[in-house]
Amino acid sequence: QDNSFEQFIINYCNEKLQQIFIELTLKEEQEEYIREGIEWTHIEYFNNAIICDLIENNQTGILAMLDEECLRPGTVTDDTFLEKLNQVCATHQHFESRMSKCSRFLNDTSLPHSCFRIQHYAGKVMYQVEGFVDKNNDLLYRDLSQAMWKANHSLIKALFPEGNPAKINLKRPPTAGSQFKASVATLMKNLQTKNPNYIRCIKPNDKKAAHIFNEALVCHQIRYLGLLENVRVRRAGYAFRQPYEPCLERYKMLCKQTWPHWRGPARAGVEVLFNELRIPEEEFSFGRSKIFIRNPRTLFKLEDLRKQRLEDLATLIGKIYRGWKCRTHFLLMKKCQVVIASWYRRYS
């Protein structure tokens, strides 16, 4: 019920993961249709970049202002931090506070004076400002290292070399918020170079019981996970896409003109293949470098035809092999018969 600094940075990480989910699914999906020259009507969706910027902006972000409060001289408290937020973020559409200059929340009794509220992608979350400054300073690690280095046990002293007074860096250690922000940035950079697959888990009820389906709870999760926008883009678009070369290589045995080898361009081969199979024109589109298939049933049909064709080819190979084996045995027996007959006639 009481969210503090820990929950704040967890929710910040969730926002960044949601942002990359949007980039890799909704935005990239629609941009690919445009790149490939596929006729497409843009579908609007909410991009949570504005929320990420509210938290991580280097000048006006919440983490930047928290670090500034932790580093500045003078009396610094959680209240001064909240006051600074109220000055800088008052007009931001995703920031709410009763103490800010914005009069929208002056009479909001659900929002205490010592709290601020952020309208995240998944919904509004209220944070207790108490403890933000101390938790962000994270001075425990330095004090702990110095204490461990003073131990008489050589192993413990070796595990905490940064506690050695001779090696203490006078520069102020990085705050917990800045360390977490750097870790999230590294994670995002790593994910951008990969092709991640998302598994969205839906909790059917709060009782952890079987055979209970809370419709309101499920609908709420579907909305804040961004599944509605994703489904709209998927249904309006194409379920499957593949470059022409691997597509032709996989399904070329379904057409006599492309089997066993197609000598022309891969796209022309795919066009011949799809015309031969009489797939409805509304079920596929030709992009600049890929074939786009709209309905999964069309793809399942292709896979079923390929499976049947492979079985037929396996039967054909087996038949030819057995015929060759029997003919080889027959020719050998015939040769033996000729030799035996010639020797028999010689001595008869």
From TrEMBL:
GO terms for biological process: actin filament organization; actin filament-based movement; endocytosis. Residues 1-307 form the Myosin motor domain. Keywords: Actin-binding, ATP-binding, Calmodulin-binding, Motor protein, Myosin, Nucleotide-binding, Repeat. One of its GO terms (cellular component) is myosin complex. Residues 184-206 are annotated as: Actin-binding. It comes from the Eukaryota. GO terms for molecular function: actin filament binding; ATP binding; calmodulin binding; microfilament motor activity. Coiled coil: none annotated. Gene3D superfamilies: 1.20.5.190, 1.20.58.530, 6.20.240.20, Kinesin motor domain (3.40.850.10). It holds the Pfam family Myosin_head. Belongs to the TRAFAC class myosin-kinesin ATPase superfamily. Myosin family. This is MYO1B protein. It comes from Melospiza melodia (Song sparrow).
